[in-house]
UniProtKB/TrEMBL annotation:
Claim: Membrane is one of the keywords in the record: yes
GO biological process: proteolysis
Stretches that traverse the bilayer: 127-155, 191-215
Superkingdom classification of source: Bacteria
Pfam families xrefs: Zn_peptidase_2 (PF04298)
Annotated InterPro entries: Zn_peptidase_2
GO molecular function: peptidase activity
Protein's recorded name: Zn-dependent protease
């Protein structure tokens, strides 16, 4: 059973990554009917929502696109910044979706930002406590590690509504601004859905690992 579990937590993220890369590659070859590139798309949606203070910048790397709330900047990877593809404008609109969430103080986004330091600390220290607790057979240390790990898992789970909401906003904005036609919505949704799968996979694996550790803790307590 352990090997089956191990295979599941390894294969799920690999499949999600393969899916997003293959979908992105496919639709990066399909041009958006408007002829707008990612940078123009991001700027148009930002301006339509009154976010004139948010900058759009190019950033190196593949699929390194993100919104930085600290300096109010949408950063798009080179291909998406300059490209005119359905994939590029979908990713650009998604990142702008986060900027709109930031402007509107979207509750889940604010909660996720508040969790960042806790989640980072928890992910760094949890495995140390867990390993020491397991090797030394000290249930209290194992439990402490599980508690810290739970904070990191909560961050993964809270990320899901943030990402799905940003994608939903992206679809609405792409159509309203005129970046894509109605008949291009299906292809655009495929790009956004594939990207969302990576977050679903990460959250699922994190939850499964947390449950496994809780079962180990229960077993250790029963042996005492």
């Amino acid at each position: 059973m352990y090997f089956i579990y191990l295979a599941i937590i390894i294969l799920i993220p690999i499949y999600a990554q393969m899916k997003v890369k293959s979908t992105y590659k496919k639709y990066s070859k399909v041009s958006a009917s408007s002829g707008m590139n990612g940078a123009e798309t991001a700027r148009a949606i930002l301006d339509q929502n009154g976010l004139y203070n948010v900058r759009v910048e190019e950033t190196p790397g593949m699929l390194s696109d993100h919104y930085d709330p600290r300096d109010k900047t949408v950063r798009l990877s080179t291909d998406n910044y300059h490209g005119h593809s359905v994939a590029g404008v979908a990713v650009a609109a998604h990142e702008v979706g986060h900027a709109i969430q930031d402007k509107e103080a979207y509750a889940f986004l604010r909660f996720r930002h508040a969790l960042v330091p806790v989640a980072n600390f928890g992910s760094n220290i949890s495995w140390i406590l867990i390993l020491v607790g397991m090797l030394a057979s000290i249930p209290s240390l194992l439990l402490a590690g599980i508690v810290f790990m739970a904070a990191a898992v909560l961050f993964q789970v809270i990320t899901l509504p943030v990402e799905f909401n940003a994608s939903s906003r992206a679809m609405d904005q792409l159509v309203s601004v005129g970046v894509i036609r109605n008949d291009e919505e299906r292809e655009t949704k495929k790009v956004l859905s594939a990207a969302a799968m990576t977050y679903v996979a990460a959250a699922l694996v994190a939850v499964l690992e947390l449950v496994r550790l809780l079962l180990m803790y229960t077993g250790m307590r029963e042996e005492d």
